[in-house]
Design a protein that fits this description.
16% helix, 7-stranded antiparallel β-sheet, 23% strand, two-stranded antiparallel sheet, alpha+beta
Length: 176
């Protein structure tokens, strides 16, 4: 059937939370693969079927592939912040911690300080947020909107140096 782009307008940054959380919880329970229902389509697409622009899930999945290896490490979580940890895919000596702050960005919520450990030498952080909230059809990495160029070239997804002992996690955000 032809693309009905109006049906995808709900596909926003909020969907990235369930997608990343689902991959992480499956990995924590021994699954080695995760299959999406749609790559381009109506319900759970990673690309807008009218424009072929990547949706926020696409970028979240890209960071997952770049940063989360197959070795799963136990991590403690709370009600508002879910935490997962994996060995880095290219360096087994490095650990990637995934944090999902499920607290809504209602203007009253403050960033959460999440302690990652006192033996950490250095961190490289990748923070995903919805520029206009969780309903945003776009996503920002470390405050910079991610958008493919007109000729389809994806932006580089580069982390920023962080505090070695803790991470400041904004409400309604995902951090690797």
């Amino acid at each position: 059937p032809p693309c009905d782009s109006s049906s995808e307008r709900w596909a926003g940054f909020a969907d990235t939370f369930w997608y990343i959380d689902a991959m992480a919880s499956k990995a924590a329970n021994g699954y080695s693969a995760f299959c999406r229902q749609d790559f381009v389509g109506i319900d759970y697409a990673m690309l807008d079927c009218a424009t072929n622009d990547p949706l926020p899930d696409y970028y979240g999945g890209g960071l997952w592939s770049k940063l989360m290896g197959t070795g799963v490490v136990r991590a403690a979580s709370s009600t508002a912040v879910r935490a997962y940890a994996h060995c880095h895919p290219t360096s087994q000596a490095d650990l990637t911690v995934l944090l999902l702050n499920l607290e809504p960005d209602d203007g009253a919520a403050k960033p959460r300080k999440v302690v990652v450990g006192d033996a950490v030498a250095a961190t490289e952080e990748y923070h995903l947020t919805g520029p206009s909230g969780t309903g945003a059809q776009s996503v920002a990495l470390n405050g910079v909107p991610l958008k493919a160029s007109l000729d389809g070239v994806l932006p580089a997804m580069v982390g920023e140096a962080g505090d070695a002992a803790s991470v400041a996690l904004a409400p309604a955000s995902i951090a690797f």
